[in-house]
Amino acid sequence: MEHPIFELNNISYIYRDKMETTPALKDINLSVHKGDFVALVGPNGSGKTTLIKLILGVLKLQSGEIYINGNSLRNFHAWQEVGYVSQKSNSFSKGFPATVSEVVLSGLTKAKGLFRRFGREDYRKLDEVLSLLNISHLKNKNISLLSGGQTQRVFIARALINNPSILVLDEPTVGIDAKHVKEFYDVLFRLKEQSVTILLVTHDIGVVVDHADEVACLNEHLHFHGTNHEFKNLGEAELSKIYGFPLQLVSHDHERACCE
Ligand SMILES: Nc1ncnc2c1ncn2[C@@H]1O[C@H](COP(=O)(O)OP(=O)(O)OP(=O)(O)O)[C@@H](O)[C@H]1O
């Protein structure tokens, strides 16, 4: 098997301030391979954001190692390899005077620096990602005029314009209606076909298990990491143990939903 696109080895993290210490992650080991779509799930306060901040280099590693494409994060500079779409992307556009093209091209500043001019290859790449996300027709539109689902695609395109090996998405379907949630998963499916590795943080476990290849369940420890089929077969007792309250996966209308 190929070596993992990213690998977490014995990651632990504790928040410390003058008053208290809060353990957030304990001994996390996780390997993700090229083209995998992994859903990272867990209850509130289970360490998902902390883990993402460590992967994105926003928080400094305290113990353990993270490798991206075989390179240790401790001396990692190739941040254009890691695309990130935050939960807040949807609210970003309100009143922001920029076109879709400008927002997507701004994703290149990670690689090119703030004041570099864009060249022919940049515009070719822009057209490619807009087409991949079916938003070519919105190219010259002002971002503030887009719907939530369209805005979300623009920010995915912005993350993809650097050709990242990994795309990290933090709660991307919050505030998006059912139709756009479906379209969103269609987009992820297309990205997967292009061998983009996806790490999706979500509370929406009922929907995501039908789309992701693998599910990783966090609650300070990594309680489970396996295929979506293995996750669906977890018993009520195991799920409730991870979440800390009674929980089961139920099916209706061919979709699975998560209920207390
Ligand atoms: N800056 C911080 N200072 C101190 N403790 C923190 C800080 N950020 C998070 N924590 C604590 O670390 C633990 C993990 O938090 P984290 O935000 O990673 O969880 P999460 O799974 O992303 O939660 P949610 O689903 O609610 O967004 C929690 O106990 C939280 O209170």
From TrEMBL:
Q: Residue limits of the ABC transporter domain? A: 6-244
Q: Which SUPFAM superfamilies match?
A: P-loop containing nucleoside triphosphate hydrolases (SSF52540)
Is Transport among this UniProt entry's keywords? yes
Keywords attached to this Swiss-Prot or TrEMBL record, sorted alphabetically, are: ATP-binding, Nucleotide-binding, Transport
Question: Which residue spans traverse the membrane?
Answer: none
List, in alphabetical order, the Gene Ontology terms for molecular function in this entry.
Answer: ATP binding
Name the InterPro entries for this protein.
Answer: AAA+_ATPase, ABC_transporter-like_ATP-bd, Metal_Ion_Import_ABC, P-loop_NTPase
Q: Which family does it belong to?
A: Belongs to the ABC transporter superfamily.
What is this protein identified as? Metal ABC transporter ATP-binding protein
This chain's source organism reads: Salinicoccus bachuensis
- Taxonomic classification: Bacteria, Bacillati, Bacillota, Bacilli, Bacillales
